[in-house]
Amino acid sequence: MVLLPDSKRVREWGLFAIVFLSGAVGLLYQVVWHKYMALLLGSHARATAFVLAIFLGGLSAGYATFGRWASTRRWNLVRTYAFIEMALLAWAILFPVFFAVLFPIVSHFYHAFGVSSALTDVLLALVLLGPPTFLMGGTLPLLTQALSPDLKSASYWHARIYGFNTVGAAFGSLFTGYFLVPQFGLSGALWLGAVGNGVVAGVLYFFYAPQFEPAPLRASRSKAKTKTDPKEYFWERLTVRQKALLGVGFLSGFYVLTLETVLIRLMGLATGASTFNFTLIVSVFVFALGIGSLLVRRLEKAKPAMLFWNQIFVALALLVLYVSGEYWPYWAHVLRAGLRDIEQNFGVYQFRLALGVTALLAVPVGLCGLCLPLCFHLFKEDKERLGQDVGYLYGVNTVGAVVGALVGGYYLYYVFNLDHIFKITIGLSVLSAGLSYWAFPQRKKRRWDRFQLGAALAVVVVVLGVARMPLYTKENYIQPFRKPLPIEGVTFEGKAAFTKYLSRNTTYLHYEDGPNTSIGIGKSEYNGEEFSRTLFVNGKSDGNTRGDLFTTVMLGHIPGILARKLTNTAVIGFGTGMTIGVLSLYDEIDSIDVMEISHAVIKNSNYFDRYNGGASSNTKVHIHEMDAFRFLAAANKSYDLIVSEPSNPWVAGVENLYTSEFYRIAKKKMNPDGVFVQWIHTYSFTDSLLRLVLRTMNEHFRHVSIFQLKGGDIALLGRDFDMERADFQRAEARFSNYPPVRNTLDAYGITRLETLLALEIVPPQLAISMGGAGARQTLDHPRLSEGAGRAFFYNASVDTYEQRRKEDIYYAAVDGSLLSEYLGGKAPDMKLLKDLSISFCDHAVSKIDGLCKETVAMAKVEDAKSSLDLIYGSVVPTRDLAKIGAFHNPPKRGFGQDDLHRAYEMFDVFKAYYSPIAHISVPEMVKRMDFCLRSTGLKNTIHGECLLQKILLMQMVHNTDQEFQRTVDQYYAWFRQLGPEVRNYSRFKEARDILDRLVN
Question: Which residue in 103, 146, 611, 978 has the fewest CB atoms around it within 10 Å?
Answer without folding.
Answer: 103
